[in-house]
Amino acid sequence: MFGFWKTWKALEARGIMGINRRNADYVLKYNKRSLYPIVDDKIITKERAIAAGIHVPQMYGIISTEKEIDKLDEIIGGRSDFVIKPAQGAGGDGILVVADRFEGRYRTVSGKIISHEEIEHQISSILTGLYSLGGHRDRALIEYRVVPDQIFKSISYEGVPDIRIIVLMGYPVMAMLRLPTRQSGGKANLHQGAIGVGVDLATGLTLRGTWLNNIITKHPDTTNAVDGVQLPNWDGFMTLAASCYELCGLGYIGVDMVLDQEKGPLILELNARPGLNIQIANDCGLTLRTHAVEARLEELKAAGVTETPQERVKFVQEMFGHIPQVEG
């Protein structure tokens, strides 16, 4: 028992945030329950982002009832690739990614050939709530298929890598790149076997990685190094994440973004209960950073000042950046 207590005190000294602290001090304190639907429903998130001028994958259509499944051909039109996902899904479950058409059928991103009827069956399963939070009836969203930037080709296996940034009251406090693996089935989900790679807030350079809760330096499928990769348009990602506070009103969120090879940074979804593995990937605790942001907020409140997303980004980059930015 003494050994456990000693270990826990050491973790606390490093600012490691546990799930109880996350829930009590941040999720419950900063996230109003009435605002949860904005982030728990991907369609609502997308509609609000579009209205705010924030870039998201284009929405082709929504199917809300079994009868509306007949509209699938009309929604897809002549497109050869698209994504179907549950509006209230979690963990990547229920998502179908179609990459091409083949002899009257469809080819998924993993190479599997499926029929139109199988797609309709998948949509029907989504509507019944099979993949939704709490098992409630859901809606199916059909949208643009993101094509990952070429920068990820050597350090990712199939699927779409994404970037998770945790944001407190509009201040990005920690970032992680999530890379699909063969084990994760091409999904950027850590619980299913994807890799989490820390990202320096100041520069967008990747740090070390965590895979199945182990520290790694190379991707298990490509064997290429995951650290030292420069993510393009990093300030754009940071500003996009900071702006999501105004978008949803929730004070403690995880912002998930992707880098499309043509459209650049896009918001994928928001999460009101972001996981804590990001601390392993960054070899750094969240609590020290969140306390620094809360102290900053107190100073600004006393001075009667608020900061823009760009000013908030500049503050955290100067405060939390591992590596000094290089002057151009």
TrEMBL record:
This is Alpha-L-glutamate ligase-related protein. It comes from the Bacteria. Residues 46-297 form the ATP-grasp domain. The keyword Nucleotide-binding applies. GO terms for cellular component: cytoplasm; ribosome. GO terms for molecular function: ATP binding; metal ion binding; ribosomal S6-glutamic acid ligase activity. One of its GO terms (biological process) is SOS response. It holds the Pfam family ATPgrasp_ST. Keywords: ATP-binding, Ligase, Manganese, Nucleotide-binding, Ribonucleoprotein, Ribosomal protein.
